[in-house]
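Milestone 3.1: sequence recovery, worked example.
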């Protein structure tokens, strides 16, 4: 289950080019017999309301079921400008909702990326709130800012709008996400 914003919908390219679709259609991934449901909506965040009134929490409520094995949260810079601490509270609620709806699912939280090595303080604040909520929930947290995702090749990986991944950027995210997702879906599930 992919919970996210326009970085996961293919905005700026197409849904077919979005990294979740690329992962699902990768023959290497298909051997795991897993289906990816992409609940991401443009403009969404833990707090930010995106398309169709969507937040990360409402995406969980609408899409996660007791058969969900892995929930991946990705983003969201859309929460920049939220009240102090508001994102952490909303993220904690979303993670708690996963645990109720899919008690055996792994939760993987990926913070917002930055396309420069000097991200805005608001972006770092959102990252820190996402990380704190993930740690409190016992979820895995990955920090694209700390790992330097996209920064070294932003001209190629980010499209003309300066905000959304190009087709090459979606392929880049596909590789990053597969490396994170595959070990988690290979683990045996509790009975």
């Amino acid at each position: 289950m992919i919970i996210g914003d326009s970085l996961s919908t293919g905005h700026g390219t197409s849904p077919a080019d979005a990294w979740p679709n690329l992962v699902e259609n990768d023959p290497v991934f298909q051997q795991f017999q897993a289906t990816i449901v992409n609940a991401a909506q443009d403009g969404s965040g833990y707090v930010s309301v995106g398309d169709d009134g969507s937040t990360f929490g409402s995406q969980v409520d609408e899409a996660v079921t007791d058969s969900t094995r892995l929930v991946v949260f990705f983003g969201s810079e859309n929460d920049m400008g939220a009240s102090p601490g508001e994102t952490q509270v909303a993220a904690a609620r979303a993670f708690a909702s996963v645990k109720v709806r899919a008690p055996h699912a792994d939760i993987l939280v990926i913070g917002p990326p930055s396309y420069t090595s000097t991200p805005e303080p608001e972006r770092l604040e959102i990252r820190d709130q996402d990380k704190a909520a993930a740690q409190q929930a016992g979820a895995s947290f990955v920090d694209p800012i700390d790992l330097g995702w996209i920064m070294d090749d932003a001209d190629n990986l980010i499209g003309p709008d300066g905000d959304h991944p190009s087709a090459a950027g979606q392929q880049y995210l596909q590789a990053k996400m597969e490396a994170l997702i595959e070990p988690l879906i290979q683990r045996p599930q509790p009975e």
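The chain is about 40% helix and 10% strand. The domain at 2-186 is CATH 3.40.50.1110 (Rossmann fold).
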